[in-house]
């Protein structure tokens, strides 16, 4: 049988470098996917030269409050606007769907500024984190000087913690709308899964450490107990770093965090009690 080749230091350096490059490349790919999704816009409505453009961006999704905030800029074009859409030529009334709280009125010949409009979310439960999802119907219509005006509605996102997909397009001559579903972005899913794996990994590490102390009858090894206790409290702080600040009682807790805390706490208690009994059984020096 041929002797196994010894791995040279150069080969180790190359292997480490390749691992780092692959990990960085995977991170860049995930970032690019999130960035592309954020730059993707959706539209519904009329492309007539004389129209009211409603450009909206999703600034923030608050799952606990079941609310999302849209930053909306209304741009009247053609005969409806003046100064390249800066102001309407007549009184402009923006009518919105029931998920938005109220309608907005823009006086004639006055500059239009952007608006932050909250919308209500339906469906889903925040405790399903990180696999929760929510829905909203966003529709706009416009009335210019008392008459309906064609509307083109566009929507994109800014909030990096959520992605959105369009389930249905609602477009007529004087109305534009989208049925939207919000879900956690790919980066949030990856980080949440990493947290779950890490929590279980730490719990298993503490378990094997406690098992070694008990099986070998090491007694009271305070540095080891310090590590175990520190892990118990560190996991609580680590859990609070979850992006989106999920509430206690979410899927993350029931699948990883609470179990990891139970395992570590039991290991600390059993190891200390067993160590104390072992110390008492040792003869005095």
Write the layout of secondary structure elements.
Layout: H1 9-39, E1 42-45, E2 52-62, E3 67-76, E4 81-82, E5 87-88, E6 92-96, E7 104-106, E8 115-120, E9 133-144, E10 147-149, E11 151-157, E12 162-172, E13 175-184, H2 186-215, H3 222-239, H4 251-281
Parallel strand pairs: 2-11
Antiparallel strand pairs: 1-11, 2-3, 3-8, 4-5, 6-7, 6-9, 9-10, 9-13, 12-13
Helix pairs in contact: 2-3, 2-4, 3-4
Explain what the structure shows.
With 285 residues, the chain is α+β, with helices and mostly antiparallel strands. The protein is 39% helix and 30% strand. The protein has four helices and 13 strands. The strands form three sheets. Strands 6, 7, 9, 10, 12 and 13 form a six-stranded antiparallel beta sheet that branches. The longest helix has 31 residues, at 9-39. The chain is elongated and about 100 Å long. The two termini are 54 Å apart. This is DUF4436 domain-containing protein. It holds the Pfam family DUF4436. Keywords: Membrane, Transmembrane, Transmembrane helix. The chain crosses the membrane at residues 12-31, 188-208, 220-238, 258-277.
